[in-house]
Amino acid sequence: MTTQSSYVEPGEFKRDTNYIDTRITADGRDGYPVEPHRYRLVAARACPWANRTVIVRRLLGLEGVISLGLCGPTHDKLSWTFDLDPGGVDPVLGIPRLRDAYLRRFPDYPRGITVPALVDVPTGAVVTNDYARMTLDFSTEWTAYHRPGAPQLYPEPLRAEIDEINAVVFREVNNGVYRCGFAGAQDAYEAAYDRLFARLDWLSERLATQRYLVGDTITEADVRLFTTLARFDPVYHGHFKTNRSKLSEMPVLWAYARDLFQTPGFGDTIDFGQIKTHYYVVHADINPTGVVPKGPDLSNWLTPHGREALGGRPFGAGTPPPPPPEAERVPAFH
Questions:
Q1: Looking at the structure, do residues 120 and 269 belong to the same domain, yes or no?
Q2: 334: which residues sit within 8 A by CB, 6+ positions away?
Q3: Considering 116, 145, 174, which residue would you say is the last residue of a domain?
Q4: What pairs with residue 126 in β-bridges?
Q5: Residue 67 belongs to what H/E stretch?
Q6: According to the model, what pLDDT value does residue 240 have?
Q7: 3-state DSSP call for residue 16?
């Protein structure tokens, strides 16, 4: 693997949020109509932003119409790579690097090569890497291909509240852990740390009396918070110095996260081994030795959570998704 990128920035970390905003829609207004078997979702189990798309695809039952390509947990300066596949080549796209799909559409693509990305299989060109829009479009544009019993993850009456919660959670939690980990100055780190834990305390208060973030069923808001919480103890607490307390020491959030983890479609997408490898190996300027810690013990994710007492119906009037396809199953963790 070639030299890794540098992640720590002088002062405060600022995320580049300019993504390819092309959309795949039912009416095809951007030139990419919803069409089964035409698009491939390229993700990585290590990445929290990509993890969201894998969860939503599972919950809605889109596995049969949008194929999944998985990059390995590490990457170099150039691109995520398909090193988990035979010969290091994606078996559908025929490329060794996700970068190849970006350059197929944008020969001078100036930004980082990110997952998740949706790729147009016939042309081999990337369509979009706008992960926030991607999952909403799975819910709203791909309805003709949802499985029977698919949940309403973005129900119209709750969209304004979901959007509001998502914006706060992104700013203070999803991206907040990165502002801690990639801060290049003490004051920037401490400000990010204080903002992160203030918001986690606020979320604990909100979730103390309701099972899910918005309404009484799982929504897009829960998916977005879950992927950060799942990485909190394995990597953020130590690697990103978010160490006021572990998730397992925050009773409400810990029970909430376990409730979701034990819900079909959530925990069965989590690969703790790949998550730890990614953060501790790729972020070489934070962890120059590349040593991946053995701990923590993660078997506690399967302990009873007691959140059923708050009521709520995980899938509303719908049903849980079936087990993932054999080729997409995550190895059991210990």
A1: no
A2: 299
A3: 145
A4: 119
A5: strand 67-70
A6: 98
A7: coil
Query: Which residues belong to the active site?
Result: 47, 178
Alpha-carbon gap, residue 81 to 70, rounded angstroms = 9
How far apart are alpha carbons 37 and 62 in whole angstroms?
10
Q: Are residues 134 and 161 in the same domain?
A: no
β-bridge pairing 125-128 and 117-120? antiparallel
Q: Are residues 83 and 121 in the same domain?
A: yes
Both 79 and 206 in one domain: the answer is no
pLDDT in the model for residue 13:
74
Tokens of 93: 């796209």
Provide the domain limits for residue 101.
39-145
The reply to whether omega before 296 is within 30° of 0 (cis) is: yes
Average pLDDT across the chain, whole number: 95
Give yes or no for residue 252 having a pLDDT over 50.
Answer: yes
Residue 233 lies in a domain: yes
pLDDT tens digits, residue range 295-310?
999 999 999 999 999 9
**Which residues make beta-bridge pairs with 70?**
43
**Annotated binding residue 80:** yes
